[in-house]
Structures are given as C-alpha cells and as structure tokens.
Amino acid sequence: MAGLHFLLVPLVAQGHIIPMVDLARLLAGRGARVTVVTTPVNAARNRAVVESARRAGLDVEIAEIAFPGPGHGLPEGLENMDLLTEREHFQPFFQAAWSMDAPLEEYVRSLPRRPDCLIADSCNPWTAEVCARHGIPRLVLHCPSTYFLLAMHSLSKHGVHERVADELETFEVPDFPVPAVANKATFRGFFQWPGAEGFQRDVAEAEATADGLLFNTFRDIEGVFIDRYAAALGRKTWAIGPTCASGGLDADSRASRGNRPDVDASLFVSWLDARPPSSVLYISFGSLAHLPAKQVIELGRGLEASERPFVWAIKEANSNADVQAWLAEGFEERVKDRGLLVRGWAPQVTILSHPAVGGFLTHCGWNAALEAIAHGVPVLTWPNFSDQFSSERLLVDVLDVGVRSGVQVPAMFLPKEAEGVQVTSVGVGKAVAELMDEGPKGTARRARAKDLAAKAKAAMEEGGSSYADLTDMIHHVTVLGGKKGHEVDTTSARAMPSILH
Predict the structure, then answer these.
(1) Does 16 participate in catalysis according to the annotation?
(2) Average pLDDT, whole number, for the chain?
(3) 191: confidence class by pLDDT, cuts 50, 70, 90
(4) From which residue to which does the signal peptide run (predicted)?
C-alpha cells in the first residue's frame, strides 16, 4: 500500500463529485496519496473538505484542470451541471466534458511518476484513452444504485426499450431479482436522448475495458443486485459505501460537504435543538431538479396545512418569479414558528444527523438516499428523472423505509393542463402524515431505518463488508501496478496545473 498514488476524476456534477471526494478521504485514510482532478469552480466548492482532510494528516489534494466550455459555446465559469439554466446548453456541456482529455493528459504528463491508478466516474469514459496511452490502471466508479444499473442492463439485454414505443406503456423488468413494473419514462438512462448514442457507446466501452468497477453502496441493502450485475458483466467489482458514513469530518467540513451552505450551519443546529426528537421534516430536491412553480406552491400549502415543523431547501425562491411572488404573500410569516426556509444550498448531512429530524422529503438522488439510510431517517419519495425512480422503488418496495408522494412520471410527460402539478396540497398533507405517523406502521418504518443506519456504519468499519471490499480493491491495484511496472515520464512534461492544498 505504501506509496500508492490514486487520481480521482469525477463528473462535474454535485452528485458525482461528493462521493468521489469521500472516496479520496477513504483511500488516504488507508495510507494512499490521492489527487482529485477537477475544474477551478468545482475545486473551490470542495476546498473546505480537502483542507479538513489534510489537517487530519491525510494526503489528499485537488488538481485543477481547465474546463473547455467556452470552446463549445458555453459561458465562462459554467463548470457544473447545477449551473445549467438553458436547455440548449445541455448537450454542449457534455461535449465540453468529453473534451477534458487534453487537459487531463497535460496534467498526467507533468507528473514525475505515473499514478498507480485512475478512478473515473462512469460518465467520464474519455479517461480510458488517457490511461491506455500512459499504462495507468483504470477503475470505474458508478454513482447510482446497483438496482438501477442492473435494471438498465436487463432492459438493454432484452431489448425492452426498442420493443416499447410509448413512453408511458408499462412493462416488467425481465430477469430481475424483485418484481419491478415501470415504463420508459421512469426507467431512462443518463444518455438516453436523441443524438446521445455516441455518449452511450463510449460509456459502455469504457466500462467493458476497465480494470474493475466500484459501487457506492453496501451489501446489506443491495447484495443481490451487486452480485447479479457483477455476474452479468463478468467484471471485478467492489461495494465500498456508503461513503457518506465514513466519518472523520469536523462540523464545519460536514456542513461544507459538496459546497459552502448559503446559511450558517449553526443556525440550523440551534433551530433543530429547540424541536422534539424525530419531529422535523427536511425537504430538499438536490442540486439539479427544479419543480414547476405551481407544484412548489402546492407543496408549500401542503406543508403549511400539515402543521408539522420543517426545514425546506427551496432553491426555486432564487430563480422563479412566480415562487418569489407567492412567498411575498406571507408564507414565511405564517409558518415562522415551525418552518425554516433555505434559499440555496443546505448543509444536508448536518441536518439529517440531528435527532430532531424524523423524515426527509427527497428527490431520491442516490447520494441523498444513502445519506438518509446512513442516518436512519425515513424518506418521503419525490423522484424527478433518471435513476431517481429506481431509488424510490428500492427505498419503498425493497427496503420499506419510505412513503411515496404520488409522483408518477417526470414532469415533461405531464399534460399541459396539469401545469407541472402531480401532487396537490392535500396529497402532500396525506403523504407527510403517513411518513411522520407515530402509530405502529410509522414506528416500524423508523425502526427499519435505524437498523439500516447501524448496518451502514458497520459496513464501513474494520471487519465490515465495504471496508473489506476497499481493502481488496487496494490489493488489486497493487497487483496491477506490479504487472505494469512504474514508468517515469518527465521528458514530455508541460506546465503543472495549480494544486490546492
């Protein structure tokens, strides 16, 4: 293990950077040197966590490389998916991300010694050629659940998407460990849009040629899906999560995980301290999803009518004039004794780890799902797109730690007259009441959530399944390094990108 150097290359999106930085801390905790390679905007967002790790004696650093967005018609500084505000920027953004191979290669050439391993996000297949040219072993980190990965593999293998024409026509996922009835609208992969066939092909080829696959999950919640996916692909795999349960962060770094919060974390803590245990509902839809204005208003009315305390990360308050006008009508004043609104990024782990929080209304992004599981908080599911509907099925149907809000499809598939509303204020109230129920069903759900939290913690500790898988992965990299040898490449070095310590 001594002397191993890992390069970690996340996709430039919050839900992908956060687990990669967590993994950097885990590897450094085992004695490795770890460099997270990302762009200047994303480096700045994650500086606090990296500095905390370094203060703790961990050899973690961030290397900045350029994001070639302007060359693809994007504004300067648009370096993260959560900064996308125009639909026409979506495809150019990924084209720019796919062009990061040149700055990555420049960085690799600048190093005095070849890295022992590069761990790339599954959405960064462009790293494959860089690794091949320099003889660097390459692992792929998958950020969604293995439930989702296996389902998408089965649908592709059996040609279901090709046979089903209507986006809303239901089908059963074939050759799947548990019953799963869905439609194309709710079982859609990351690069399944017209013109993205090349992206899909690159991702599949990069996965097929990788030296192994990593999953941010643990066997107690996804063991059967992990085993079936590994068998289907015939690849070496490791489940090394939930990375959010790795611990070791001080309070400030925990609050800054992913980005600096828009409100001081101490405000949340003092506000929650004044509430009874398990009484507060936390609401957040992640970094990418934006609800239509009328749906935001229906949600707010439902929360108001519920008469339960809540913390709501309402980023639409900064970007939607209709939501701003509704808030100006006095919503905050009416709920001021039991409602706390955050206009932007909230310190999610700080909030979920507080004993006053008893429920989490979530978009079901996999990071959010794992954070809820790791902290023993039952969820109210409100998926928006992509793998989020799969996460909902896992949380509600398999693990039985969630309640459905009533969302059926991504908003784009709703009839125009719905104006983006899938859950009325009455529906919100009913779902909140069911989640926060103190009767036998609610008590049993909370007990299951607490049990999974204990298992998540145990998985990450020495003797746990994820700890053992990380150990085996490190051994695998050591063996690969022995086979390929250590080459020194200084003759073609170019200017060293800036390193943030």
Answers:
(1) yes
(2) 90
(3) low
(4) 1-15
The reply to whether omega before 242 is within 30° of 0 (cis) is yes
| Mean predicted confidence (pLDDT) in 261-288 | 89
Spatial separation of the C-alpha atoms in residues 226 and 213, rounded to whole Å: 11
Catalytic residue among 22, 101, 116, 121: 121
pLDDT for res 254: 56
Long-range contacts of 185-192 (CB under 8 A, 24+ apart): 185/409, 185/410, 185/413, 186/383, 186/389, 186/408, 186/409, 186/410, 187/151, 187/152, 187/155, 187/389, 187/390, 188/385, 188/386, 189/152, 189/386, 190/123, 190/386, 190/387, 191/94, 192/161
Percent of the chain with pLDDT over 70: 91
Three-class HEC string of 371-389:
HHHHCCCCEEECCCCCCHH
Which domains occur in the chain, in start order?
5-246+458-500 (3.40.50.2000), 257-456 (3.40.50.2000)
Query: Is the full-model pTM beyond 0.85?
Result: yes
- Of the pLDDT bands very low, low, confident and very high (cuts 50, 70, 90), residue 492 is very low
Whether 121 is a known active-site residue: answer: yes
Please list the alpha-helical segments (H only) found in 307-342.
321-326, 332-334
Query: What are the pLDDT digits (tens) for 88-124?
Result: 888 899 899 989 999 999 999 999 999 999 999 999 9
Contacts 24+ apart (CB under 8 A), 351-355: 351/268, 351/272, 351/282, 351/311, 352/282, 352/377, 353/254, 354/268, 354/269, 354/272, 354/273, 354/280, 355/277, 355/278
The answer to whether 187 and 167 have CB atoms below 8 angstroms apart is no
> Does position 192 have pLDDT exceeding 60, yes or no?
no
